[in-house]
Design brief:
The chain contains twelve helices and 14 strands. The strands form four sheets. A four-stranded mixed β-sheet has the order 1-9-8-5, with helices on both faces. It has a four-stranded parallel β-sheet with strand order 4-2-3-13. A three-stranded antiparallel β-sheet has the order 7-6-11, with no helix packed on it.
C-alpha cells in the first residue's frame, strides 16, 4: 500500500521547542507570558498592524469581534453561506441571527450583489440594518473586498473578516485580515500555521486591542480584588501554544510559498482534463495563499464529489468535499438566505485536494494521476 497522503497536516519548522523550553525553564506554563507577547509582535510585524490579540481559537476571535462591534440579542449579522460553521456559530453565541448570502463564481466568496439585496431586504423586513458583515476568504482566496467594503460603507455596517484560512493571502497588495474593521485568524492544526489550537483578532487601533485583551481575560477590572462590570471570557492563548506560534512565524513565508507551488503544480498536471478546473486567482490583484487547492468539474457529468473522494481514498489519498453551505445546514434551516445557487452548485461539483506544505512533488503527482485516471474512467 502506498503511504497515506493527507489533506493538510501541521508542518513544524524545527525551532518551536526553543520557545517551549524557554517557557518551561521560567515556569511560564500559564495563559499569557512572554511567548504570547512575542507571537503578537511577530504577527503584528507581518501584518503591518501592531494591534493583534492572540486567542485560544479562530472561533473565539470571531466571537470577540462580534462583541466589539456591539452585536447583541435580536440583532442580525450577514454571513457568507459558503463556509465552515465556525464563521456563523459566534453570531448564535450572541443571541443574534445569521442572514446568509451566496457566493459569486470568481472567488467563491460573498457575492456583492446578493449582499446589497440582503441589506435592503432585511431593513424592509425588520426595520433595521444588520449589525455586521462577515465575508470569508475561503481556501485562502480573497473575497471581492473593494465591492463588499463599498456596500458596507454605503450602509454604515462594519465588516468582520473571517481570514482563518487566508494568513499570507493578499488583495491589491494588502494582507487579508487587515481589510475590514476587525479580522480573525486561526492557527488550528490544519491551517497555514499551527499553535496546536489558537487564533488571533486583528484590531483597528490600540484602544480596541486593549478592550479585546480585557474581555478575553474574564473582564477583570484594574482593582486589588476581583471586580467585574461586564461579562468576560477565558479566550487568551496559552504561553506554550504561543511558543509554537513563534517558531511557526519563522517558516510562515516559506510555507505559503510552498502551498502556492503545490497549486501551480496541480494546475499544470491537471490542465489537459477537459471539464475539470483548478481554482485560480481571478486577476493579479488577488494573491491567494492557496491553503487548499480546489477543483470544480463539469456539472453535466453524473459524478458526485463522493465518487472521486472514495476513488482516491482507495489509493490512500485524503480529499474532502467543499464546505456544505450554511443555508443547507439543518441547524440554520430558519435563517434568511439571499442569492442563487452558486455555493450549492460548487458544493455538488467540487473537491479539496491534498495541499499541506510538507507534501512533495511526487505526492502531488500521485494525486494528479489518480484524478486523471478517475475522470478518464468515468467521463467516457
Ligand atoms: C478554521 C476556521 C475557523 C475557526 O477557527 P478555529 O481556530 O478552528 O476556531 C473559522 N472560519 C473558517 C473559515 C475556518 O476555516
Amino acid at each position: 500500500m502506498n503511504s497515506r497522503i493527507f489533506l493538510s497536516l501541521p508542518h513544524l519548522g524545527g525551532n518551536e521547542m526553543k520557545w517551549i523550553e524557554e517557557a518551561f525553564k521560567d515556569s511560564w506554563v500559564v495563559p499569557l507570558g512572554p511567548n504570547v507577547n512575542e507571537f503578537e509582535k511577530l504577527l503584528g510585524n507581518y501584518l503591518e498592524n501592531p494591534n493583534i490579540v492572540a486567542l485560544s481559537a479562530g472561533t473565539a476571535a470571531l466571537h470577540l469581534g462580534l462583541i466589539a462591534l456591539g452585536v447583541e440579542t435580536g440583532d442580525e449579522v450577514i454571513c457568507q453561506s459558503f463556509t465552515f460553521a465556525a464563521s456563523a456559530n459566534p453570531v448564535a453565541y450572541q443571541g443574534a441571527k445569521p442572514v446568509f448570502v451566496d457566493s459569486e463564481p470568481d472567488t467563491w466568496n460573498m457575492c456583492p450583489i446578493a449582499l446589497e439585496e440582503a441589506i435592503i431586504d432585511r431593513k424592509k423586513a425588520t426595520g433595521k440594518y444588520p449589525k455586521a458583515i462577515i465575508p470569508v476568504h475561503l481556501y485562502g482566496m480573497p473575497a471581492k473586498m473593494n465591492e463588499i467594503l463599498a456596500i458596507a460603507n454605503k450602509y454604515n455596517i462594519p465588516v468582520l473578516e473571517d481570514a482563518a484560512e487566508a494568513l499570507g493571502s493578499t488583495y491589491f497588495g494588502k494582507k487579508c485580515g487587515t481589510l475590514g474593521k476587525y479580522g480573525a485568524l486561526s492557527f488550528n492544526g490544519n491551517k497555514i500555521i499551527t499553535t496546536s489550537g489558537g487564533g488571533a483578532l486583528i484590531c483597528p487601533n490600540e484602544q480596541a486591542d486593549k478592550h479585546i485583551k480585557f474581555l478575553a481575560t474574564q473582564a477583570r477590572e484594574n482593582m486589588p480584588y476581583y471586580y467585574h462590570n461586564v461579562i468576560g471570557y477565558n479566550y487568551r492563548l496559552s504561553n506554550i501554544s504561543a511558543g509554537i506560534g513563534c517558531g511557526q512565524m519563522q517558516v510562515l513565508e516559506s510555507h505559503v510559498e510552498r502551498r502556492r507551488e503545490i497549486h501551480a503544480l496541480y494546475t499544470e498536471l491537471l490542465k489537459d482534463i477537459n471539464g475539470v478546473t483548478v481554482m485560480q486567482n481571478p486577476t493579479s490583484d488577488y494573491n491567494s495563499n492557496f491553503w487548499l487547492t480546489t477543483i470544480s468539474f463539469d456539472s453535466s457529468w453524473d459524478i458526485s464529489p463522493e465518487d472521486i473522494r472514495q476513488a482516491l481514498e482507495a489509493q490512500n489519498i485524503e480529499t474532502r468535499w467543499l464546505w456544505r453551505p450554511m443555508h443547507m445546514q439543518p441547524v440554520f434551516a430558519n435563517a434568511p438566505y439571499y442569492g442563487g445557487n452558486c455555493a450549492e452548485h460548487l458544493f455538488k461539483h467540487g473537491l479539496c485536494l491534498p495541499s499541506g506544505s510538507c507534501l512533495t512533488n511526487d505526492d502531488i503527482k500521485r494525486v494528479a494521476n489518480a484524478i486523471i485516471a478517475f475522470f478518464n474512467q468515468n467521463t467516457k
